């Protein structure tokens, strides 16, 4: 099994994905443990002094003015975890919780939080045991960290609350820790606060969203190329010299993908004899690289922000290399929240243009010779009429999900925390939007593959590109049916969704084209 070592080098997005989705083991390097111990010694020295230090000998948030004596400081740390573990709603996905915990552990390993080594070591053991705290949907405002989600994780560290075991069964955390020989942690000065103050949840979801959207942009280029073929469109608009004069890198990458998928097609560039020749295709076909390309460039910016946040040590207060312990505002999630919202806009627009191509394939007045709704016997059969309704509903929801969460702020903690990022909410809605986008692309795949097969049935000369033929054949093998009489359609759509989600669509095209961007 793959192992991720914290402390020897920078943490990467692949490390986070390996732990969150691949159950990779986590280890703390000797250097990391030494750094943790060094910063802890600074906190211990401050705790012994009479001067108040936030998070060490004071209350929290609006209660930071209250001094806490040595005899109550362990209780103070337990209390912040218990009181802040106030999440509500449905459970958050296992991969999100694992990313959340791993990223908090990464910050603990930075030697900037002042916890004892045992705290970091116990968190690593919990991850490696496959124990996943129960975290609820609501409770983070994306400022002062993802407080409630991280508190539910810290609760498990203390042997309290509930968690899911490696067998998928939810049990009391104390039982799961005991079953794996893990001692609960008795938190001391600063440690409860250090476990809660981070952008880890929203960052983990951003990293997973970037990976998922990267794959979906490639998939969307393939289905756009297939729709272009089904509509007998022209591939001349994909010529590299046209995109070189508007040098957006994402646009060039999408155009190149489409051109490679369409190589060898006998379906492109045809115009129906019984209508006025088309000199250019509709925007949803002709401008596919411009829209998908803009999304790719948005994704590149989001990855840059994610990499910067991965290189950060987010806590308040923070232990600096010169021994100072300083309050700060680095827990504010604005940088992450903004790009999460930006990606939701890109996902909504990519789905919107895909749906327009699907609708064009189904409309006999705009499909250039295809049967209405790609039906077997139009009138008796409805074909893909309602599949487009489903796609349209998904597109409409993604437009609602594109409304930015980060434009909102609700004051909290008696106006001490008077401006928040709502980054957690931005991340949650982006995950939903990506799921919807996967389904939208799947519907375009169903329509475009059926259109291509219907074209090929009309004459030997109308042969699709080798890459698109590979996709159609792989989709049929994955349970996506082709043209014919009406059938129970939901299983076809589910099979198409699974085909896209698994990477099968891209893999089938790349068997012919080689790696696509």
From TrEMBL:
Organism field: Streptomyces humicola
Keywords: Cytoplasm, Histidine metabolism, Lyase
PANTHER family xref list: HISTIDINE AMMONIA-LYASE
Keyword Lyase: yes
Catalytic activity reported: L-histidine = trans-urocanate + NH4(+)
Residues with the 2,3-didehydroalanine (Ser) modification: 144
Family assignment from sequence similarity: Belongs to the PAL/histidase family.
Modification(s) after translation: Contains an active site 4-methylidene-imidazol-5-one (MIO), which is formed autocatalytically by cyclization and dehydration of residues Cys-Ser-Gly.
EC number(s) per entry: 4.3.1.3
Pathway field: Amino-acid degradation; L-histidine degradation into L-glutamate; N-formimidoyl-L-glutamate from L-histidine: step 1/3
Predominant localisation class: cytoplasm
Cross-link (5-imidazolinone (Ala-Gly)): 143-145
EC main group: lyase
One Pfam family matching this protein: Lyase_aromatic
Record-level Gene Ontology MF annotations: histidine ammonia-lyase activity
Location(s) in or outside the cell: Cytoplasm
Protein name: Histidine ammonia-lyase
InterPro entries linked: Aromatic_Lyase, Fumarase/histidase_N, HutH, L-Aspartase-like, Phe/His_NH3-lyase_AS
């Amino acid at each position: 099994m793959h192992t991720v070592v914290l402390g020897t080098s920078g943490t990467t997005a692949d490390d986070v994905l390996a732990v969150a989705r691949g159950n990779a083991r986590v280890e703390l390097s000797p250097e990391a443990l030494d750094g943790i111990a060094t910063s802890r010694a600074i906190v211990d020295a401050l705790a012994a002094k009479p001067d108040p230090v936030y998070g060490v000998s004071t209350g929290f948030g609006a209660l930071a003015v209250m001094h806490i004596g040595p005899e109550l400081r362990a209780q103070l740390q337990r209390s912040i975890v218990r009181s802040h573990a106030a999440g509500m709603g449905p459970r958050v996905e296992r991969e999100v919780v694992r990313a959340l915990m791993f990223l908090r552990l990464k910050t603990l390993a930075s030697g900037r939080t002042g916890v004892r080594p045992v705290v970091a070591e116990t968190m690593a053991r919990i991850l490696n045991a496959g124990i996943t705290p129960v975290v609820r949907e609501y409770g983070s405002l994306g400022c002062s960290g993802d407080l409630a989600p991280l508190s539910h994780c810290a609760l498990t560290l203390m042997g309290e609350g509930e968690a899911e075991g490696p067998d998928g069964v939810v049990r009391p955390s104390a039982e799961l820790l005991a079953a794996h020989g893990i001692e609960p942690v008795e938190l001391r000065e600063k440690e409860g606060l250090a476990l809660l103050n981070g952008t880890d949840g929203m960052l983990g979801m951003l990293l997973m969203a970037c990976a998922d959207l990267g794959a979906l942009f490639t998939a969307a280029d393939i289905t756009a190329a297939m729709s272009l073929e089904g509509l007998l469109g022209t591939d001349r608009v994909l010529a590299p010299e046209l995109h070189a004069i508007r040098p957006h890198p994402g646009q060039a990458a999408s155009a190149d993908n489409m051109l490679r998928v369409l190589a060898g097609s006998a379906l492109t560039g045809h115009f129906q004899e019984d209508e006025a020749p088309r000199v250019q295709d509709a925007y949803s076909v002709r401008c596919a690289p411009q829209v998908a390309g803009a999304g790719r460039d948005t994704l590149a910016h989001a990855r840059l922000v994610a990499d910067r946040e991965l290189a950060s040590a987010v806590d308040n207060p923070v232990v600096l290399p010169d021994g100072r312990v300083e309050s700060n505002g680095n827990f504010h999630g604005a940088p992450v929240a903004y790009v999460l919202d930006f990606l939701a806009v890109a996902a909504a627009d990519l789905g919107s243009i895909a749906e327009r191509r699907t609708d064009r394939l189904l409309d006999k007045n705009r499909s250039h010779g295809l049967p209405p709704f790609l039906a077997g016997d139009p009138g008796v059969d409805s074909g893909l009429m309602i599949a487009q309704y489903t796609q349209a509903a998904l597109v409409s929801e993604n437009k609602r999900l594109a409304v930015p969460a980060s434009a909102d702020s609700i004051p909290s903690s008696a106006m001490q925390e008077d401006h928040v990022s709502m980054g957690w909410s931005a991340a949650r809605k982006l995950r939903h939007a990506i799921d919807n986008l996967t389904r939208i692309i799947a519907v375009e795949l169903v329509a475009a593959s059926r259109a291509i097969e219907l074209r090929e049935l009309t004459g030997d000369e109308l042969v699709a590109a080798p890459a698109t033929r590979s996709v159609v054949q792989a989709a049929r093998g994955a349970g996506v049916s082709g043209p014919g009489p009406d059938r129970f359609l939901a299983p076809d759509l589910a099979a198409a969704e699974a085909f896209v989600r698994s990477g099968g669509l891209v893999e089938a095209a790349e068997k012919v084209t080689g790696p696509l961007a």
